[in-house]
Amino acid sequence: MLVVGNWKLNTTQAEAVSLAADVARGVSDANSGVGVGICPPYVWLEAVVERTAGSPVRVGAQNVAAQDGGAYTGEVSAAMLAEVGCTYAIVGHSERRALFGDTDEVVAAKVSQALANGLTPIVCVGETLDERKAGRVEDVVTGQLAGSLAGVESLERIVVAYEPVWAIGTGETATPDQAQDVHATIRSWLRDRFGASAAQTPLLYGGSVKPANALELFRQPDVDGGLVGGASLDAESFVAIVHAAADAEG
Ligand code: PGA
């Protein structure tokens, strides 16, 4: 089980450090085998890495450059993120795909950069409401997987997050059955493409995960944790979601 918080464009430095400290304290008590990650804005990464040192909490970035260096104003490379102490990089989040032009091709380049620099990419896929209504969930999700993982040779260090766009930040969550259906599709696509190691690939669900719905989602056989947005900005809620993952595992 793995639970990762995506803080998006939120927090002052003081808020980030205090949230990180509260999460570190909360999950240390849990003493479980659940992996925990938090993804603050780039500028607070270093402070958050320092504040969580010695705790089970790992730190990730919300994005990464598709290039390894050079004249790319405003970008941050995978090597820089690794140097500052990141473990994870979220890649291909639907907000990046919809608002910042991250095509599958761009996502694939970012995945390659992350892997080449020792980071674990959390590769996001998910359909819009129109695509779901049109019965295209499987097509869309497997198409995004094929494009985003085009340059990947093995599943070592790959995490996939299924985030239905209609469930992100809306308060509307996929039902456990809906999540399990798509996760099973993802698992079987990964198995066809990469073989038996797909059984070990963490498949996270994201989209309005909260303490009240986390346990049911995490109990699904192919749901191996969560990518949590809004609820990760509140330490108590996020820690409760980590505890739900521990309960689902146990
Ligand atoms: P949410 O966001 O939990 O606020 O729906 C999830 C995400 O975008 O990763």
Put simply, the count of helices is: 10
| Strand neighbour order, sheet with most strands | 1-2-3-4-5-6-7-8
Bound molecules: 2-phosphoglycolic acid
Rg computed from alpha carbons, rounded to a whole number of angstroms:
17 Å
User: What oligomeric state is this?
Assistant: single chain
Give the helix level as a range of percent: 40-55%
CATH homologous superfamily grouping: Aldolase class I
What is the first-to-last residue Cα distance? 10 Å
Sheet with most strands: 8 strands, parallel, barrel
Q: Which structural category fits the helices and strands?
A: alpha/beta
CATH topology: TIM Barrel
Structure, briefly:
The chain is 44% helix and 15% strand.
Describe the protein.
- The protein has 250 residues and is α/β, with parallel strands linked by helices.
- It has a single domain, classed as TIM Barrel, CATH 3.20.20.
- 44% of the residues lie in helices and 15% in strands.
- The protein contains ten helices and eight strands.
- Strands 1-2-3-4-5-6-7-8 form an eight-stranded parallel barrel, surrounded by seven helices.
- Helix 7 packs across helix 8 (176-194).
- The longest helix has 19 residues, at 176-194.
- The radius of gyration is 17 Å and the shape is globular.
- It starts with a strand and ends with a helix.
- The model has no long low-confidence stretch (mean pLDDT 97).
- 2-phosphoglycolic acid binds at residues 6, 163, 168-169, 206-209, 227-231.
